[in-house]
Design a protein that fits this description.
Shape: elongated
Largest sheet: 2 strands, antiparallel
Strand content: 5-15%
Number of helices: 2
Number of domains: 1
Length: 71
């Protein structure tokens, strides 16, 4: 289901999104679009890095898009 709103994501949801991007990058449907494949792989890598650095406490477990992560 497509969403038009930007929502907050848990680290697990971010990882699932990254996995979907990686799968699409490997899809035979994109073999004729190497730049798109590269972009999808890069997006997946960046999302995985964000997920790895996401806060783990229950009240801080949602990363709000557009807000910097504090360490």
């Amino acid at each position: 289901m497509a969403h038009n709103k930007i929502v907050s994501l848990t680290a697990e949801e971010m990882s699932a999104l990254a996995n979907r991007f990686e799968a699409r990058a490997e899809s035979v449907l994109l073999r004729d679009q190497p730049q798109m494949q590269s972009d999808m792989r890069l997006a997946a890598k960046l999302i995985n890095e964000l997920a790895a650095n996401a806060p783990t406490a229950e009240d801080l477990s949602r990363v709000h898009i557009g807000q910097a992560l504090s360490k």
